[in-house]
Amino acid sequence: MTNSKKNLKLNRGFSLVEVLVALAIFMILMFPLVGAITRSIHSTTTAKELQYRNDFAEGLMEQMKSVPIDDIKDSSVVENIIKELGAEDLTSYTFNPANNKMSAEGVVYLKIPKAKEEQKYSYHVEVSNEDYESLFPAKSPSGYVESLDKDKVALIDGAALGNYDDYAFKALFTKYLAGKQSSDTYDETAALAAYDNVTAKREIEIVVTKKTGNIYEVNSTVKYTDTSTTANSFEYNIYHKEFKDELPSIYLMYNVGVYNRNYTVDSIKVSLPDDDTLDPKLFVIETPENMETTPGSGVYVETRRKPERGNRSTQTLTFVSGLYSDKLKVYQNVEDSGSINTGGFNGNVYNLSEVDRNGGLYSVKVWMTEGDFSTDYVSSHNPVLKGSREGR
């Protein structure tokens, strides 16, 4: 009897109070986990919505960059592009021939996986060359030109020039010291003091050749020469690409040269195929990061390319004639074309703002938002995507 009572006591289970306490502890521990799971699901859904929104914006951007520029003047062409991307009819379309600006707006319903219903987004797209109308003395909007289709234009990255400035300084300085050390009268202090006055020439050469099969090959090199002795020089290849069927426009993203804490003496030389049917164009574009607010002022937007010595007015850029360069049109925003040193250059040098509207640069911008646009949404918000295209 005693053993039965003991076993009954041992097997009686949990009381209601104990169960409630355990349940309360479990809920307390689970609450943060449930919140984290909910937030994760919400974040995943939001990320998918952004992905689908961006996919539509990128598709619209690429279509606007690839269609012939004259076609955007026709609202039916733009509407067909929009419908191919799955959007509704355009709600508005305008084209202003004064500045070749096209604006189109509408609505697209995006089907997001696992979403209960399609999400409504409003979009606004603009194609215009007004961003490039007055690029002198103002500079090119950073990010636009770099987003040109690199399979259609020869885009020579300016960052490479800045990197090679550093390589060349180290290489030429080492060669300079080696030459001084070979002398029986070598004096390190005097050699270093003398080197303070040494600068370098920076020669950028672009060579375009036409190969069999109607292929155009574009090569570019940069050569640095120590001004104290022309025997000291180094040359680097900075660009090589082939283009099928059509001569590409060439874009050189220009950085002012800096060598030995001073500006380099820069020159640009272009050689072309012997073909009178070609219409070669070179765009030499300096972006705001490397630019004085007023040429010669010494006041910079940023100081990344500002040397320790010298004023921007001491930096010079010369265009040099190459093979068959007489038909070359150069559009640049480094200096005013009236004061730029063209030497014996037999081509034509213009300010970037003088570029032919029908053959110049166009910006492409896309805005998108969930639901409907507010009245001033486009003017008060940055586009979700922006890029550039040529005017052809």
Question: What's the topology here?
Answer:
Elements: H1 2-10, H2 16-66, H3 75-84, E1 92-96, E2 101-110, E3 119-128, E4 154-156, H4 158-181, H5 188-195, E5 200-211, E6 215-226, E7 233-244, E8 250-254, E9 258-259, E10 262-263, E11 265-271, E12 281-286, E13 316-321, E14 329-332, E15 348-351, E16 361-370, H6 377-380, E17 385-390
Parallel strand pairs: 4-8, 5-11, 8-12, 11-13, 12-14, 14-15
Antiparallel strand pairs: 1-2, 2-3, 3-16, 5-6, 6-7, 9-10, 16-17
Helix pairs in contact: 4-5
Write up what this structure looks like.
The protein has a domain of 210 residues. Helix 4 runs antiparallel to helix 5. It is α/β, with parallel strands linked by helices and 392 residues long. It contains 6 helices and 17 strands. Helices cover 27% and strands 30% of the residues. The chain is flat, with a radius of gyration of 32 Å. The strands form 4 sheets. The protein has a 5-stranded antiparallel sheet with strand order 1-2-3-16-17, covered by helices on one side. The protein has a 5-stranded parallel sheet with strand order 4-8-12-14-15. A hairpin with a 3-residue loop joins strand 5 and strand 6.
